[in-house]
Amino acid sequence: MRFVSCFCLLAALAWLSGCQNGAISAAPRPKDELLILVSIDGFRWDYIDRYDVPTLRQLARDGVHARRMTPCFPSKTFPNHYTLVTGLRPETHGIVSNWFWDPAFAETFGMSKDASNTEARWWDAGEPVWITAEKQGVRSACFFWPGSETDIRGVRPSFFRKFNGKLTSDQRADGVLALLDLPAERRPRFCTLYIDIVDHAGHNFGPLSPQTAAAAHEADATIAHLLAGLAARGLREKTNLVLVSDHGMSECSPDRVVFVEDLMDPAKVRIESTGPNGGVRPLPGTVSAAELAASIRAKAPPQLHVYLRDEMPANLHYRNNPRIPDVMLVMDDHWNIESKIGWPSRRATYVKGSHGWDPATPNMGALFVANGPAFRRSREFAEVENIHVYNLLCRVLGIAPAPNEGDNRLVREAMKR
Ligand code: AMP
Ligand code: ZN
Ligand code: ZN
């Protein structure tokens, strides 16, 4: 009996250490390998099958492919780009939406405001991978990425560019290739590349439009251009590529809109966001957040779910930050909450696609492909959450990750042993 329990204990210990070995058994990578992280904004998980994207398909077929990567709530650009590079959920890294009010600063963060992109105080609850890398002696370059235009606790990437939406996707790829032409002691070992044409087409024409198909094809051609540039420099065999998107895209229409003004008195609230999810706070001296939530709930149509911040569904992990509005208005897929201000004319130009809905919604799924000497070959798995990407990037670069909310499951799935 004692032998049996002893054996069981040993077996359990062996199994446990096997698991741990599994987590750390990825072979250390040679120090001359490069890592390029490419984001194709708004590239829905199923576009790789639907559209003419031969380069991405080949990279996925030869390398590692998650059928669907699950973003964080809200499935918006800035929160998810920062999650991809920090391993932290938006409630933890603090970029809780593309636009949000910070009650301590009494100011609004906005994705297209220069100050928001350059002031560390908005971003410094997270440590992006380029900072982790620089701190450990790995030179990094960001050819656009939310959060790359600021220092974090005094550290910056060696190279970064102020966001310029006018540069074509190929010009951005050429920018990365030019950095790889630098002399060895200045050359970055980690680069980001950001492409946004697929997101634009998805918004303007819808996810299943010919225009979005064309944009996906064009983004694919840029990846082919990048690969050709790497090959011409003799770098293809030394380069690890991680290709991701931040979220998917869903159809919407001005006929599936709920109006803020039909639910509350807009003079008594600060409207902090609208779209696939809305957020409001009662103005000082009006009502409590609980009273506001109850009165909205009494009028809410079935497509609208009203939560106090502290009542947000646990699986959305969206409670623990004062930047999250007091009252959240979460819409079902395809539905938006909007203000009536300017509506008759806005109706005519209303977006045909959007994102921001619950990450579990099938249409919100994102892209994940990894290919290069660090990665396994021809490996496909069903799903991974984007909080795990940061640990993978750190492992490929051979650097120690900062504390984060992901684990090593992507290291185990994706990396060569
Ligand atoms: P959205 O679809 O509203 O979540 O945001 C996507 C848009 O964000 C893209 O169309 C880009 O033009 C814009 N964007 C992406 N990165 C940045 C950046 N670093 N700075 C400013 N705007 C950006
Ligand atoms: Zn986006
Ligand atoms: Zn978008």
The major beta sheet can be summarized as: 8 strands, mixed
Q: What radius of gyration results from the CA coordinates?
A: 22 Å
Label the overall shape: globular
**What would CATH call the class of the largest domain?**
Alpha Beta
Q: Which topology of the largest domain does CATH recognise? A: Alkaline Phosphatase, subunit A
Intertermini distance = 38 Å
Which small-molecule species are bound to the chains here? adenosine monophosphate, zinc ion
Structural class: alpha/beta
Can you tell me the number of structural domains?
2
The quaternary structure here is: single chain
Helix content: 25-40%
Number of strands: 18
User: How large is the count of helical segments?
Assistant: 15
What can you tell me about this protein's structure?
- By secondary structure, this protein is α/β, with parallel strands linked by helices.
- It folds into two domains: 264 residues, Alkaline Phosphatase, subunit A (3-Layer(aba) Sandwich), CATH 3.40.720; 94 residues, Gyrase A, domain 2, CATH 3.30.1360.
- The protein contains 15 helices and 18 strands.
- The strands form five sheets. Strands 6-5-7-1-8-17-2-18 form an eight-stranded mixed β-sheet, sandwiched between helices. The protein has a four-stranded antiparallel β-sheet with strand order 11-12-14-13, covered by helices on one side. The chain has a two-stranded antiparallel ribbon with strand order 3-4.
- α9 packs parallel to α11 and α10 packs antiparallel against α11.
- The structure holds adenosine monophosphate and zinc ion (ZN) (2 copies).
- Adenosine monophosphate binds next to α10.
- The site of one zinc ion (ZN) has 5 residues, from α10.
